[in-house]
Amino acid sequence: MVGSDHLTVSAEHVVELARLEDCNVARVGTGTRGCIGLTDFRGDVLPLIEVRQLLGYNSFRGEIRAAKEFVEQRERDHVLWLDELKRCASTGDPFKLALDPKQCAFGQWYETIRTDGPERERLIGGSVSLAAIIDSFDHPHRRIHALAEEVLGLATTGRIHEAVALVNSARDTVLEELVHKFNTYYEAYRKLRLPSLLIIGLPGFRFALVVDQVEAVCSYPEESFDESPGIAQSSGGFVTHTINDGHDIVLRLDVQRIAKHVLVGARAA
Predict the structure, then answer these.
(1) N or C: where does the chain have the smaller number of CB atoms within 10 Å of the terminal CB?
(2) In the chain, what are the domain boundaries?
(3) CATH number, span 6-59+195-268
């Protein structure tokens, strides 16, 4: 599986399954699209071909980096939210940031993940632990936004010192709890995104396909595959046939085409 796409490779070409985290990767620039480096696998130096990049998805490293940036930005958002709440309590200026926890940037994302089943499943990938971490965001996040009413209420009655003290206390308690959950989420997400390898063996050439995960070994009759010129064009020829297995549309990777792509790129380099 890659992203939300279900892919298949003919079993006759699959030599072995492995995990990328168990391999030593040399990140060398080859100039070949999708080639993220080389690895010494059982004495053979194999090119590592990330299928995500071949098919136009965000790369693994890009996706992990985006997740890191997301949690860091959401932390900054709530630090600034508390800063502004404190400032408004001290000066009497109107507080214009989101009071409703569903309306801040994180809240909008969280509401989507909470209510959109396919989007939630795409994110958690069946991980019960990641789902539990995401669900645990709700309580501290709501507590932070609920502070506004209490803090501003104190400020409007002249109890500014108490209002400021309440914001300062929230930094060390509920904000710290939320930030800890953000970091826990990131680490769990990163570990869940550790990719798998399909070691592909063709006459005279071996390489490794880097995929999100290997779901199952299935048997598809050759005559059941349909040619898909549109997908072939959009995928650069790396996917030429599809099959509907009754649950999903499965895309067949053309490993011969991928091998040619790698070899041509190597010669050009």
Answers:
(1) C
(2) 6-59+195-268, 62-192
(3) 2.40.50.180
Q: How far is residue 49's CA from residue 60's CA, in Å, rounded to a whole number?
A: 12
Between the alpha carbon of residue 213 and those of residues 61, 78, 82, 84, 192, the distances in Å are: 15, 34, 41, 44, 10
Tokens of 32: 């070949």
What is d(CA 61, CA 44) in angstroms, rounded to the nearest whole number? 25
Q: Angle at the Cα of 197 (from 194 to 202), degrees rounded to 5?
A: 165
User: How many whole angstroms separate alpha carbon 178 and alpha carbon 136?
Assistant: 9
pTM here? 0.77
